[in-house]
Amino acid sequence: MNHLLEIKNLHVTVEQKEVVQGVYLSLAPGEVDALMGPNGSGKSSLASALMGHPAYAITSGQVFMGGQDITSWPAEKRASAGLFLAFQYPQAIPGLSVEHFLRSAYNAQAEARGEKPINVREFRTLIESELTALQLNPAFLERGVNDGFSGGEKKRLEILQLAILKPKFAILDETDSGLDIDALKIVAEGVNRLVATYSLATLVITHYQRLLHYLKPTHVHIMAQGKIMESGGPELVDKVEAAGYQPFMNHA
Question: 86, 143, 177, 215: least CB-packed within 10 angstroms?
Fold first, then answer.
C-alpha cells in the first residue's frame, strides 16, 4: 500500500518528559484512522510533534510524508507540503476577518506551489459552495477569527479551512469537543466529503466514540502512556464503549 504518512518509532519529549514513546503509524490516501485514548495519553502531543511545534522535541524516530523525511522540517514547510492540524482549542484573533485569514492562508499555499495568488472575487466564488455545505452564512466571513464564536462555529471554521486549503493529510485533534449533535453531524459530513472527494488521509484524535459513529474509521488505534497499546478495525470503538480504556492499559 502506498502510504501518505509514515511514523516510525517516534519518541517525543516536552519539558524534559517523554510523552510519546516509540509510536509506529501509517496512513494511505483516503484512509480515516482514529487515535483514541484517555486524557494524558500522549495523543495531542503526537499531533503537535507531527505538525512541527517547536516545544515538542522529536528525540528519535522519523516521520515521512509522501516518502519524504519531514522529521526536521519547520511547521511552515510541513503545512506547505500538505499537512494540516485542526486544533482542539482554536485561538481567537480579534480584528482579523475570517475571509482575510482564509485568503491569506490560501495564497501562502499557492505561492509555495509556485502558483498565482487569488483575488477577492475569485476567492468568494471558491468559498461559496463550502459555506453552504457547512451551513454558514456569508456574513460569517466578515467576523473576526474565532472571536465570540460558539464551539460549533470554531470547529466548522476548521473544516472550512480544510475545504479551502485541500491538504493531503489532516490531523483533527478533539474536533468533537464542545459540539452539540447537530454541529457534530455537520462537521463529520464535511470531513467525509473531503475524504471522498480528495482522498484526504485523516487522523482523528478523540477520547469519545460519538464522532466515530459518523466518520467510520478505517483503523482504530488505542493510545495510553505514550504508546499505541492496540490497533484494529472499527470494532475497537465498540470495545472502548463497552469496557472503557482500562483493558488496554497494560499491554503494548
Answer: 177
CA dihedral sign of residues 137, 143, 148, 152: positive
Read off the pLDDT of residues 41-63 as tens digits, 9 standing for 90 and up: 999 999 999 999 999 999 999 99
Q: How do residues 69-88 score in pLDDT, each as one tens digit? A: 999 999 999 999 999 999 88
pLDDT of residue 251: 57
**CATH hierarchy code of domain 5-248:** 3.40.50.300
Closest to 151 measured CA to CA, from 127, 181, 128, 190 = 181
Residue with cell 491569506: 104
Amino acid at 56: Y
Closest to 157 (Cα-Cα) out of 220, 205, 89, 203: 89
**Class of residue 72 by CB neighbours under 10 A (exposed 0-12, middle 13-18, buried 19+):** exposed
Domain boundaries defined on the chain: 5-248
Closest CA to 244 of 16, 37, 31: 37
Per-position b or e across 155-165, b if 16+ CB within 10 A of its CB: bbbbbbbbbbb
Q: End-to-end alpha-carbon separation of the chain, Å?
A: 24
- Distance in angstroms (rounded) separating the CA atoms of residues 166 and 159: 10
Start-end of H helices in 142-246: 151-165, 181-198, 212-215, 235-243
